[in-house]
UniProtKB/TrEMBL annotation:
GO terms for molecular function: 5'-3' DNA helicase activity; ATP binding; hydrolase activity. PANTHER family: ATP-DEPENDENT DNA HELICASE (PTHR47642). This is ATP-dependent DNA helicase. InterPro entries: DNA_helicase_pif1-like_DEAD, P-loop_NTPase, PIF1_helicase. GO terms for biological process: DNA recombination; DNA repair; telomere maintenance. It catalyses: ATP + H2O = ADP + phosphate + H(+). It comes from Nosema granulosis. It is an enzyme of class 5 (isomerase). Belongs to the helicase family. Its cofactor is Mg(2+). The gene is Pif1.
Length: 589
């Protein structure tokens, strides 16, 4: 005796038919292939059967998971971390068949439709979105014109000709096409809302009618479009439900007068027979049937009407992997609400403003060239309209570090003097390629400041995740100037990475993201590690033209030695050593 909780069909079979699938003789003669059909008595079970096919799991272990497991075996990850890695592989990748992969690569549509569809936005006017006309069209309008939006389906319906005054919106959208020009065969236009057109669906015998506003022609179709709309629920939003029925299935001319400022339920009751008759032409089976089936299913249990044990699973090991999500891959722990952050605190180390007495002493210690350059930069900063790029060249002891401090403190004082300024805002950043050089100027390394990769020899800069980029961008939103010391140690690759990273963080395609840059250094000192000089190229063909980034920079040279200014002879000897031009006097010294 079977324990049945719902209706189920049992086919009567002869003993010799035990191993034969259920089939239909008429379909078999046409299909000429294997068949396994069942009677469907439960809408919910039918839905579950389709979902099982869509979301079926792979029994065989894919190459992707095998690689992930091999990587985990090499490390000392905890069980929780292993689970996270494997789960993220499922979350961020998709396995498909070879045939589907070919369809995607060749951009072949996976499905086509014999009927066109059109969406009718039945939301209230304030909840609809309109598209602005192109710049070319807007420039031709009168300065006080309010006709700035592209004509939509509802606008076309309102401007239908008098001959169509008794046509409802559903019929207008489904039965008619709108064209900008009057032709013998009105083609589908950008405003027709068609999605798929298999053949010519325009009625050749129909006459094109001109719209009231003269902005198009209306012609009848031979095939109706399938309409889609917001579909408000009566039990959830009665007012909008009645308004939507009136809007779709009853003719109207003025939306405010006929649909907004009225009693929707009373008007619906007055015309309900006409509305239901017209609605039956477009809504053949109510969408809430599946909702009712779901409720019935939950009441009686989880038994299905369909035997899903015969669903075949592909165990081919040569899977095609697509849809890598890039830098914004999902994290299964984040989806589950598990905090995975390590508590790391980002800190931008920038020098603070020194006391006024120290600043005055600093400015008095500058020589003529240093003072002139500081004033020049201050004028550029105060104007604020033009981006600038400066290269301060000078040998050892000419006061480059002192100049950096003077420029930074002067700019800091200027911005802090502005009304409403925040002293914690980062306006100027000081960086260097190494930690030791950065410590000498109270700055940061370029790697930590811009999150650059430590190994720059791969010549590939991976974009920051969106959250990291936005977090740094918020910190540096007011950045105006970047100062880089020891530029001789910054190679071609790192310089390109600084430019690319600033463009990403500042969300600007301008050089260095629109930030002004001052670089200082002496190319007779230490050179880049594992890279070309900043003004050279890694590619021999690129050497035929100038480096586009380095060519932006204007040269300023410091020649007066400040470190050994009391011993000029010794200072000159040190300079000659760096240049390799020592004299006999220098050697004897």
């Amino acid at each position: 005796r079977a324990d049945l909780k719902k209706a189920k069909v049992f086919l009567k079979r002869a003993p010799n038919e035990i191993r034969i699938n259920a089939y239909n003789p008429m379909i078999m003669s046409l299909h000429k292939a294997n068949m396994d059909i069942q009677f469907i008595l439960d809408p919910y079970a039918c839905s579950m059967y389709c979902v099982d096919y869509i979301s079926k799991s792979e029994n065989g272990m894919s190459k992707l998971l095998r690689e992930a497991l091999n990587e985990l075996k090499k490390g000392n990850n905890t069980v929780k971390e292993r689970l996270r890695v494997i789960a993220n592989k499922f979350l961020n990748s998709s396995e498909i068949s070879a045939q589907e992969a070919v369809y995607h690569i060749l951009s072949i549509p996976l499905s086509t439709s014999s009927r066109s569809t059109v969406f009718i936005n039945t939301n209230r006017p304030e909840d609809r979105i309109s598209m602005i006309k192109s710049d070319e069209v807007l420039q031709k309008l009168e300065p006080d014109s309010k006709d700035v939006f592209v004509q939509g389906l509802i606008d076309m319906y309102i401007n239908r000709p008098e001959e169509m005054k008794n046509i409802c919106l559903a019929d207008f959208a489904s039965v008619y096409n709108v064209s900008k020009k009057q032709t013998n065969n009105v083609q589908i236009t950008e405003n027709s809302d068609d999605e798929d057109v298999i053949d010519n669906e325009i009625d050749e015998k129909s006459v094109a009618l001109k719209m009231k506003n003269g902005k198009g022609w209306i012609k009848k179709r031979t095939k109706k479009k399938i309409i889609r709309f917001r579909n408000f629920k009566l039990h959830q939003d009665p007012e909008n439900y009645y308004r939507e029925q009136l809007m779709l299935f009853l003719p109207w001319n003025n939306e405010e007068e006929d649909l907004i400022y009225i009693n929707h339920e009373e008007t619906f009751e007055l015309h309900k027979d006409l509305i239901r008759q017209k609605r039956s032409e477009y809504v053949h089976r109510e969408a809430n049937e599946f909702e009712k089936a779901f409720e019935e299913h939950t009441e009686r249990g989880n038994d299905d009407d369909i035997d899903d044990t015969k669903i075949e699973y592909d165990q081919d090991k040569n899977e095609f992997l697509i849809y890598e999500t890039g830098n914004n891959e999902g994290d299964i722990f984040v989806e589950m609400g598990i905090n995975t952050r390590t508590g790391k605190v980002e800190h931008f180390n920038v020098p603070k403003m020194i006391p006024d007495a120290d600043y005055q002493q600093l400015m008095r210690s500058l020589n003529s060239n240093q003072r002139k350059y500081t004033l020049n930069v201050m004028n550029l900063i105060k104007d604020g309209d033009k981006q600038f790029f400066h290269f301060i060249n000078g040998g050892a002891g000419v006061g480059k570090s002192t100049l950096i401090k003077a420029v930074y403190q002067s700019i800091l004082r200027f911005y802090n003097s502005l009304p409403g300024s925040n002293p914690e805002t980062i306006r100027v950043a000081i960086c260097a390629p190494t930690g030791k050089a950065a410590a000498l100027i109270d700055g940061m390394t370029l790697h930590s400041f811009l999150s650059l990769p430590v190994n720059q020899c791969k010549h590939k800069l991976v974009k920051l995740d969106s959250d990291v980029s936005n977090r740094i961008g918020v910190k540096l939103k007011d950045l105006q100037l970047l100062i880089i010391d020891e530029i001789s140690m910054v190679g071609f690759t790192m310089f390109q990475q600084v430019d690319a990273r600033l463009q990403q963080i500042m969300k600007s395609k301008e050089s260095f993201g629109g930030i002004s840059v001052i670089v200082l250094g002496d190319f007779n000192q230490l050179r880049p590690v594992g890279d070309k000089y900043i003004f050279q190229f890694n590619n021999s063909y690129n050497a035929l033209v100038d480096n586009p980034l380095w060519s932006l920079f204007q040269l300023f040279e410091l020649t007066e030695i400040m470190r050994q200014k009391d011993d000029k002879i010794f200072a000159i000897a040190l300079s000659n050593i760096a240049k390799g031009t020592m004299t006999l006097e220098d050697i004897n010294l």
